[in-house]
Amino acid sequence: MNKVAIVDYATTKFRKLTDKSVYELACEPAMEILRSSIIPANKIEGLLFSSCSNDLYTGAIASEMLGINPKITCRIDNLCNSGTVALSAAYSYISSGLCDSILVVGAELRNSPGSKLIWDVSRGQFTSPIYWASVFAKMHMREYGTTEEDMGAIAVKNRSLAINNPNAMFNKPISLEDVLDSRKLVEPIKLLDCGALCSGAASVLLVSEDIARTLDVQPVWIDGIGQQTNCASVAHAIPGVFKNGSSKLAATHAYEMAKVNPSDIQVAEIHDAFTIMEIMAFEDLGFARTGKGASYALDGDIAVNPRGGILGSGHPIGATGIAQVCEIVCQLRHEAGIRQVGSSNVGLVHNLAAAGTSATIVILRS
Amino acid sequence: MNKVAIVDYATTKFRKLTDKSVYELACEPAMEILRSSIIPANKIEGLLFSSCSNDLYTGAIASEMLGINPKITCRIDNLCNSGTVALSAAYSYISSGLCDSILVVGAELRNSPGSKLIWDVSRGQFTSPIYWASVFAKMHMREYGTTEEDMGAIAVKNRSLAINNPNAMFNKPISLEDVLDSRKLVEPIKLLDCGALCSGAASVLLVSEDIARTLDVQPVWIDGIGQQTNCASVAHAIPGVFKNGSSKLAATHAYEMAKVNPSDIQVAEIHDAFTIMEIMAFEDLGFARTGKGASYALDGDIAVNPRGGILGSGHPIGATGIAQVCEIVCQLRHEAGIRQVGSSNVGLVHNLAAAGTSATIVILRS
Asked: Is the residue at B85 inside a domain?
């Protein structure tokens, strides 16, 4: 299996409103990468476009807009983990030898059709993801004694971290009282427990080891990828969620491939679309024992969501996984400026879709 | 690079109307493959869903409907070559070692949004693919003396071949007069020069060499994959279409990877969405010299479109590339019954998108 490196990364500012098309938005970070000329634009052999919009042929259209002529183009959708699924496809194309370099671009507008889970009849009328967050939160509170304050603390932490991220949608601190006093949407989930849909784009450039060794930039290696789709409906996701959730299975695959343990991870981006999801992720990833996710959030020794996570940065669906990867690459290259967390060289990305029915875990090393 | 084999295949009957959803349609051939139990359903590690519908998360949804729990799921779209792009992604996932087996499923309803090329402002109001077929036909007639009769002969041939394909949409012969007398849609393209959009699905099962060697079925190896996206707009596709079209470049890559020449190919599925496209393909693939595609159609020695091609079988956009692969696998395993063309062991699939702005070539060997 040939090694694959990430050699450049860029994200737009995440924002609520934009007058750009999903293509124009995608071109922002992709052009930033092309302008840095780490490899010439005419040597880019693939463009994978991650998005949940209704736009078709986006890989080819973005290629034309960017002025590149890749061998491989396509659009990839797997809802909220589309970005890391596209990353794993790009990894595979390069590792298999079908091509040597791929630009992965994720872009989404705030009103994306990906925000509604309309196919899932087991949700009844409850097509919004908040309903499953409510079910999981209630289960976790009942089983393990997790409190609304524990969840609120995650929002406070991640909003506070986002202040140091110039591309984050939110840049003001909030207090625990702010979270607890915010509008209750679905028991026990309050407005400030929720990540906010937004518009944004992110891009990474992947190359083969042979190319990476010739470049004058620090490569960040994709050491492990774990993926798991357990089901698509929340009704199927509920029974085994704490024991055999997709995150847990995907993490097992990723640790095995990268030959690391949870304790080797120094910095992680966690899919905190709702506060309860970060608590559950700590347990799924083996950072904390089952039921101890909430206390891990206070005293864990892995730097988590330095860019502010989804709660602080916003959630442009098809771009989120790629933005998470950008942040870990940035941290592992020690380029994060005021939000740099130590001199980490092993990091992890945790990216979920639709009630955690599907998960991707990526392990990166500089 | 690890070898990858196709070990099972199935298609639905292609038809104009269906009351099924795109998911239900996709499950038809996929269930046929699962029922044959070549590998147990719980060992299937990926499901890639090729479609241009507006449905999201189709890889996970189809997995749940089929009762499988793969590591990797996603939906892939690249318009009319989505199917072979999904095949190449599946190849890469297995060849790179990320997984050992993938079900690739393509499904489309006749009213798919993929039938309109609405992003391409260079087309003006001409969002239907027929307008570019018209431009290419006029260019080929002017440059090389190709005639309306030459194009009509392709339709006669492929409709005639479709009679032996029980899954084809059309099963009656037509005469050259029928084609020439059919309604002229856009000069010089007539109704019977056009492939018909339809509903349909197709599926193939890919496995690693290690698994293929343990199975009691004849593997068909993916020996070569070539891909090229030149642009997305017809205005960009026109200038170099006869010299540097995406098909020509993709074919070069595929022949090189498979270490074969055009003369080694014994059977081919050609993307004949319009009659002129089959003539141009013969030249792009090196079967005929430039300008000689029309005469090759009469006296070429490679068996072309034995299932009836798109003109005879119909065009369920995201399923077409996979249906083409199914036919070549069927031919290379000598399982085609009355439409078997000799005892071929090397075959080729040619699959285009959007005015040939993107192309995939796959070379298979039994």
From this structure: yes
